[in-house]
Design a protein that fits this description.
Blueprint (H helix, E strand, L loop, with lengths): L1 H26 L1 H6 L3 H10 L1 H28 L1 H8 L17 E6 L2 E2 L4 E5 L2 E6 L7 E6 L8 E5 L9 E6 L8 E5 L4 E9 L3 E9 L7 E9 L5 E2 L2 E2 L6 H15 L5 E3 L11 E10 L2 E12 L3 E4 L21 H13 L10 H6 L8 E6 L4 E9 L5 E6 L5 E6 L4 E6 L3
Antiparallel strand pairs: 1-2, 1-11, 3-4, 4-5, 5-7, 6-9, 7-8, 9-10, 10-11, 12-13, 14-15, 15-16, 16-17, 18-19, 18-22, 19-20, 20-21
Helix pairs in contact: 1-4, 3-4, 4-5
């Protein structure tokens, strides 16, 4: 409705201007040519008001539906109105560099198919054209089993048994919802996809559907294997996907507990995109089940990150040189002697070491002095979600007191037992 009002108003204004020029030519040839220039058009209206007022009135009448249409458009879709008034529709579309190398020749439902997105998640391969919620054209292949490595598949029209299901869908300009067709046999399919680091599959693709589907595609495709995206060889933390959040949480847990033996459980259902999330995650850390509250925030500079994450990166695993055979017996004896001695963790204890490996000092007695002169002594309970050090002290009777100290508030901390 808003588009019809805007278009109708513009047509009335244009008709009034054409009528005004015709009146000017009727007055005189010189006035007619002069009225084609805006300053002389205004001069003609002032000098020959009686002749120009009807055409000017028709143009003024066109502003009524134009203003009403723009008002409706502003209330329903302000971004579209901004794009219309800023003349963005006159600027040529700048195509962003493609993330995937997809070179397909042929057509889908009788139209050229140029997919920009491709994924193979589990057992579903999808090629999609268009960036909107509903794709302009899309091809989905549901495989019988999930793919874990390379994929090679050949299907002929006469094959029987559990075959991949093919689905093609398209959205016409006059439609609000796409149309889709499915078939489970009677087609030709060839797939030969090989892994490409870090998380892609690439290779040959050939598909021919029965004649009524008007779909024949052949060429090379490249698809993502998960929801991670990479920039300069590192995971892009700005991408809104479950795989990105799982990577961020696993990296945080590895640095918080100073171990790479972290196995993250399934994340709960997430609503994306958003700028913050509060989750309760389950993970196996050094073989022990943990259930932890996590709060994630997204910033323009860092992307997704866990709140109060101040833990340093894990050191790279050291390469141990082989021990000469001659010194094997003495070294074994010395090693046995050292292992038999109890390890005194007070010798190299520090605040940074406590934050890097809090699990090493759990339930050990320690004393912390703050910059304000207060002191807390008790058993170390760990580091909470905000990165504070928690010390629990047993009071007289059966009561206990807990202290949560921020690392920047602590002036001195001591470990009181080995």
């Amino acid at each position: 409705m808003d588009a019809l009002l805007i278009l109708g108003g513009l047509l009335l204004i244009l008709a009034g201007l054409v009528w005004l020029v015709m009146r000017a030519f009727g007055t005189g040839l010189l006035w007619g040519w002069a009225s084609l220039l805006p300053p002389f058009t205004l001069l003609y209206v002032l000098r020959h008001w009686r002749s120009a007022r009807q055409a000017l009135g028709l143009s003024a009448l066109g502003f009524i539906p134009l203003i009403v249409g723009l008002t409706l458009l502003a209330s329903q879709d302000s971004q579209r109105l901004h794009a219309l008034l800023s003349m963005q529709w006159l600027k040529p579309d700048v195509q962003a560099p493609a993330e995937l190398a997809i070179e397909l020749h042929g057509e889908l439902h009788g139209q050229p198919f140029v997919p920009q997105q491709g994924e193979l998640l589990g057992s579903v391969l999808s090629l999609r054209e268009g960036q909107d919620f509903f794709a302009r054209r899309e091809l989905v292949i549901r495989l019988p089993q999930p793919v874990t490595g390379a994929l090679r598949l050949d299907v002929l029209p006469g094959d029987q048994g559990p075959l991949p299901e093919i689905e093609v869908s398209w959205l016409l300009p006059e439609q609000e919802l796409p149309e889709a067709r499915r078939l489970s046999h009677g087609y030709t399919l060839h797939l030969n996809l090989q892994p490409v680091p870090p998380n892609k599959l690439a290779g040959d693709f050939h598909l021919v559907l029965p004649a009524q589907f008007k779909t024949t595609l052949s060429g090379r495709i490249e698809v993502f294997r998960d929801g991670l995206r990479y920039r300069d060889g590192k995971v892009d933390r700005h991408v809104d996907s479950t795989d990105t959040l799982a990577y961020v949480i696993a990296d945080y847990l590895q640095r918080r507990f100073a171990t790479r033996a972290v196995q993250l459980g399934h994340l709960p259902a997430l609503t994306l995109p958003t700028d913050s999330l509060e989750l309760t995650i389950e993970a196996q850390i050094d073989g022990q089940a943990q259930r932890l509250p996590i709060r994630l925030n997204k910033s323009a500079s860092r992307g997704w990150a866990v709140e109060a994450d101040r833990f340093a990166a894990l050191p790279e695993p050291a390469v141990v040189a082989p021990t000469p055979q001659v010194a094997a017996a003495p070294v074994a004896a010395v090693s046995g002697e050292r292992i038999s001695r109890p390890l005194d963790r007070r010798l190299r204890f520090s605040l940074d070491g406590l934050l890097r490996s809090p699990s090493r000092y759990e339930n050990l007695t320690m004393r912390a002095s703050t910059t304000r002169g207060s002191m807390a002594e008790g058993r170390f309970q760990g580091v909470d979600q905000q990165g504070r050090i928690v010390i629990r002290q047993r009071l007289s009777g059966s009561g206990t007191a807990s202290y949560a100290l921020r690392p920047e508030e602590i002036s001195r901390i001591e470990l009181l037992e080995p």
